[in-house]
Each structure stands twice: as structure tokens, then as C-alpha cells.
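User: Structure with heme-as, C-alpha cells only please.
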Amino acid sequence: MTVSPPYDTPAPQRTLEPDAYRARVAPAIGDAAYLASLKKVTQYYVVTAFIALFIGVLLGPLQAFNYAGINVYENPILKALLKSYYQGLSLHGVLNALVFTQFFISGWLLYLPTRDMGARINMKFAWGTYIMMTAGLLIAAVPLLLNKATLLYTFYPPMEGHWAFYVGATIMVAASLLVAGQVVLTWVGWKKQNPGQVTPLVTFMSVSLWMMWLVCSLGLVAEALLVLLPWVFGLRPGVDPLIAKTLFWWTGHAIVYFWLLPAYISWYAFLPKQAGGRIVSEPLARLTFVMFLLNSTPVGIHHQYADPNISNTWKMIHMFLTFLVAIPSLLTAFSIAGSLEDAARARGGRGLFGMLTHLPWKDPVVVGQILAMVSFIGGGAGGIITASFAFSPVIHNTAWIPGHFHITVGTAVTQTFMAIAFWLVPHLTGKRLVAPKVALASMWLWFTGMMFFAVGMHWEGLLGVPRRALISAVALPIYKEGYMHSQIPMALTGISGVILLLAGLSFFYVLFATLLSPRVDDAEAATPLPYSETISPAGRSLRGASPLVRATEPLLALWVVAFALVALMYGPVLMRLTQNASLVPGCNYYTTVQSEVGCNEQR
Ligand code: HAS
Ligand code: CU1
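Assistant:
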């Protein structure tokens, strides 16, 4: 006999505080000198990030022109600066994907939770991490600029670069781990001082993200300390490329969420307010971040479907886990679309398209982020296709891949960070955004350029054009003939290079002109942190909170689960690789001195 559910039992009463629906206000910080120092260190992180992006962006069109069949690398002026296409590509990838992201995120995710908790952090330590990260960058930059670390941004062995590159990169990553530690420990202190309280949303998202970085960066840490550094310092006779590559992708996939989630923080917490709407559901935002904490890392083998010595079973398991990690992004898509609809309706938008027409389309902060999201619809869908075991052989190592990552990290992330800069720089400095119309134009240009690039490169990839290749210099007629069918996508890619150059120049004009303009406002009053109101809040007391809020609150325990999941999903794979390890000597393929090309003697 079945028992019918007790429909007449009243639902448990949640007792959220009446003001829980209102926008949060950051706790006041009375000590002006401390606040100024916190803002200053954040500004240093952010400005260093954008200087890296500036150089990286200027190098971008050279790559786009190559994929349009135009070889600009033979130009004598350029030749004096860059020895080869590979040096240009290495600088472009390292500066944009590794340096820009890491500096911006370290500043953004140090500042936000500190302000959100009203915490007093050790500023000497905070400045110390910034100086350490910058020192690491400078050490790695020397061999990069001297063509001694032309290894592309994945630095796969057995390609071997100058030791200073590996040392500098390791110091940079170590500095970011110290930032992570500082934020997590500050939160632990907050929890002790506020027992029974729900962690505020922005802090929750930031702390869980730093925890995720601490899990996912372990692969890179192990690669640096156990494989690369002992090898380049001659302590090991050679290197096992597959072990290095597997450890790299342990970090390498999850790092994309380390880039993306700081943008999600802005989309969830701040964009609704900036657009005139509300956060749809705080508990759902928390669930999203917990799903990323647990599931971002044990998926990296989707980059290695073509590699030997990893069983198909593990490849399939990682494929399914990859599909699973798309779910929190889909939750985000619907949730943020809901916030935008709420904004448009509040601004008088009615009917099916009112949601589109009534958004603040003149505000570069909002427009930049919406366009970033629109690009991510294509980027995310492409990622899911890319992850499928059956389709991967068609596009792996083709131009499709850079097509994919320019509308994920290159647009969803970078364009969001650019749009954030339009309010964050005034908030940190008390200066006013110079030329908002140029700022708006730069956002449309960036989006349009990236769309051209993405269509061109995905299309070229489907036609078999390889990635990371100086295809504009191929002399063999057979290749030329093969690529003949790519004239249209090649033209689109070339056009994208010009549009993106214009976009970059206009964006950096606005940014640097704003930074160089005089301070005119009381920053706290003129540009406060743009917290949003909430339709479905989490509340402040854990006792009155929903089961979902209570289940996601114990981040330390969830962090342990994340470590366990990674150990489970990578342990057996790495064990087999270690058992079959075979060391090979390092090779130098990128030097322009012909006699130096080749592999070193086994040490
Ligand atoms: Fe990826 C390769 C699979 C996401 C970056 N990826 C790369 C590489 C990079 C990269 C840099 O499985 C190249 C690495 C290399 O050099 O070799 N990727 C995925 C999957 C996802 C994914 C399944 N990737 C990203 C993100 C990145 C990124 C995010 C950077 C930030 N990727 C792969 C695979 C490869 C790969 C394979 C290896 C390929 C190979 O063969 O080498 C998923 O996380 C995507 C889920 C996303 C969604 C989209 C949600 C949409 C949202 C926007 C909503 C819009 C709104 C606007 C609300 C399901 C949230 C509406 C408003 C209006 C006004 C209309
Ligand atoms: Cu990936």
C-alpha cells in the first residue's frame, strides 16, 4: 500500500529578515589609510594586468593575418622585434591568457571579498604577493622577449626553454596561491566572528573560487616542481612529455573556470543592478559555484583524447564529467537572462522583445557584459561539441580551437573584465571615465571583431587548417590547394584582425586616459560597489535559510570532497603513466639559428 504524501502539512517556514531582499551595502571601513592602501594594491594588480593585455592585444592581428594567408612576420621592422611567428604567438598567448587573467583576478578577488566582509587584511602581505607576482613575471619575461622561451602558452616538453621562464612562471603561480590563502583565511576568521551566519554572496563566490584554484593548480605545481624544474636544472636525465602534459591539463582545463568565474561574479552580483534589475536567486548562484568547485578539475583529459597510454575508459569518464560541468553554466545562462528580463521589465519593457529593447544599451559597462555573454552562448555550445569523443578528432589541433577560445576567454572573460574596468577604475581612483562613447564603441568593435574571428577560425578548422602553424608561409602546392577552399573564412579572419586592432586601441585610449586624468570624485560616494537587490535571497541567519543555502555553506568540507574527486579521477591515470614513464631529451625547435635546431644529448 502506498502512502500519499501529507499534502496538508504546511511547508517549513523560512524566516528571512525583511531587509534580506535589499541590496547589500559593504560594511564601512573607517580607517581611510587602510582603505586607500587596499584600493591601491588592487589598482596595481588591475593596471599591470591591462598593460600585459595591451601588448598581447597588439600582437593579435599578426596571428589573424597569418590565418588570412598574409605573412607579416617577414617584415624587416617586425623581424627586429620578433624572431618568428612562434615567438609572436608565445608572447600573445602568455600575456593574454596567463598574465592578464592572473593579475586581474588576483586584484579583483582580493578586493571584493575583503570589502564584502569589511575585513582588515594584512596589507604588507597583500603588497608582498603583488611584488612577488610581478617579480615572477619579469623573470619569465626576459627569456620570452629574447626568444629563449618560445614554447607557446602550454610549454609542452620536450620543447625546452631557458630555466628563467619556468622559475618566473612558478613564482607567479605561487604568488596567486598566497592571495588565495589570504582570502580563504580571512573568510575563516569571518566565520569564527559570525557563527550561524550565512556567508555573504560575493564572499561565498570568491572563496569557493579560490578554493577551486587551490585544487586545480596542484597539477601545475606538480608539473613545475616534480617535472620541469628538475629537468631544466639537469637533475633528471630527460622528461616524460605525457606525464607533463597530463599534469598541465589537470590545471589547464579548470583554469578556464578560474578565468570565467570572476566574470560570473560580476554577472550574478553586479550586472543586475547595473542593468536596473535584481538577482534572480541567491541560493542558485551558490549552487553554481559549488558545482564548479567540485567538478571543474576532474575533466582535463578531454584535451588528451588523441594521446596514447591513457585508457579509453578514463577518456570517456572525463568526457561525461565535462558535460556535467556545462550544467552550472547553463544554470547561469537562465539565471542571468532572468535578471536581464527583470531589468528590462522594470524599465518598461513589455512583450517578447521588450526584454531586448529596454536594456541600457548606452552604458558601456552593461553592453560590454551582455555582448560577452552573447559570445559565450556560441563559445559554450562549441565547447560541448569539442568535448565529444566522436567529434574531437575532426577539430583537435585545428584552427577550430583558437576559434573556440577567443569567444570564451577572449570575449566572455576578457570583455567582461574590460567592462568591469569602466566602473572599477573610477571606484578605485575617484577619476571619471573618459569618453564613454568611445568606451561603448570599443565594446561593440571587440564583440564584432571576435565574431568575425570565431566564424573564420571555426570554419577553417572544419576544413582541416591546423592551429599553431605559419600557414601563410606554406610553399608546398598541395597545402595551398587544400586551403584554397578556405578563402572565405580566411578573409573573415583577416578582417577580424583589423576590427580587433581598432577595438583594442579605442579601449586602451579610454582606460589610459581615465587613469591619467585628475581625481575629481569621492570614489566611495560617486561609484559605490554596485550590489544588486535579490528576488530570492539567502538571508543572513543559517537557521532561517533554505536547505540549499545550508547545504552549500560548509565550503571547507566541500573543498575536501573536491580534492578527493580529483585524486579519484586522476590517481589511476597518473599511476599508469608513471609506471610506463620514458624520459626523452629536451628539444629546441624555435631558434632561428639553424645549427641549434634539434634535440639535446641525453644528460
Ligand atoms: Fe574550452 C579547449 C571544452 C568552456 C577555454 N577551451 C579550450 C582551450 C581554451 C579553452 C583556452 O572538451 C584551448 C586549449 C589549448 O590551447 O589546447 N570548453 C569546453 C567545454 C566548456 C568550455 C565543454 N573553454 C571554456 C571556457 C574557456 C575555455 C569557459 C575560457 C574561459 N575546450 C573544451 C575542449 C577543449 C577546449 C574539449 C579541447 C579541445 C582540443 O581538442 O584540444 C563548457 O564549460 C562550456 C559551457 C558553457 C555554456 C554556455 C552558457 C552560456 C552563458 C551565457 C548566457 C547568455 C546570456 C545573454 C544570459 C553551456 C552563461 C542573454 C542576453 C541577451 C540580451 C540575449
Ligand atoms: Cu578543457
